[in-house]
Amino acid sequence: MKMPVESCHVGEYNILEHTDLGEGWFRIDIDAPEIARETRAGQFVQVRVGPGDDPLIRRPFSVYDVGPEPGENATEIRLLIQKAGPGTEALSRLRKGESIRLMGPLGHPMPVPDLKSPAAMFLVGGGIGVAPLYLYCRERQKEGSTLPLKVMLGARRESLLIGHQGFQDLGIETYLATDDGSAGHQGNVIELLDQQLGSLSEGTQVAGIGCGPHGMNLALRDIAVERDLEFWISLENYMPCGFGACFGCVIAGPSDGPLRYRRVCVEGPCFPAKELPETF
What we know:
Blueprint: E1 9-22, E2 25-31, H1 33-38, E3 44-48, E4 59-62, E5 65-67, E6 76-82, H2 86-92, E7 99-106, E8 119-126, H3 130-142, E9 149-155, H4 164-169, E10 173-178, E11 185-186, H5 189-198, E12 205-211, H6 214-227, E13 230-234, E14 250-252, E15 261-263, E16 270-272
Parallel strand pairs: 8-9, 8-12, 9-10, 10-11, 12-13
Antiparallel strand pairs: 1-2, 1-7, 2-6, 3-4, 3-7, 5-6, 13-16, 14-15
């Protein structure tokens, strides 16, 4: 298989904007035309955090959006980041006019299933997993797709529901779930998905993509397997290199597949739910 690093770009890029979104969330807009033009939803960039070699390991981040629009006219990439440790804390201090070192795009884009009406395409996000789903919706709208998208987002409380307004501004049917009931369904997003699946008319074709914390991904895998649904799950494994050399992000492959272990950064990060092991 061709190594992603052979076709990605590595360099220093100028920060166009830094936006504080509250609750430890922030967005960085970066002037990176060669990366932006080639990035598709589901792909990611590796970010060098500091000016030197500390921290040594780059951090992977899904591309949240490209601007001004996806495709050949894109000139900037946008990253949605949550402070969770020293690396993301350092990134949160970057400001407009400073530079950032990127490598990307890496990984494979998210799939676009061919569904026949009546149909429903669920995009299930939890926490930072919302990031690649927004670009997915932007791409489908730009190409004039009739794919019936339904976005479902979950968080512990309303203030942690990041990005839902963006989907609503696109006119995407959007559903929310919070553990404390402060917005939308009281409970987790998998419970909400189960309710929505139960409300579909008989004969509806169903597909979906999920991206979120480990527990959500496991539950989504289980519901997809139990109901025999065409779902994919985008994983957020720790990726030390991002291009398959270190084998630090491997998961077990299906017993009848060609690979015993698959690298999330190269073979993924999006995998068919039915191909994922019970624990991953």
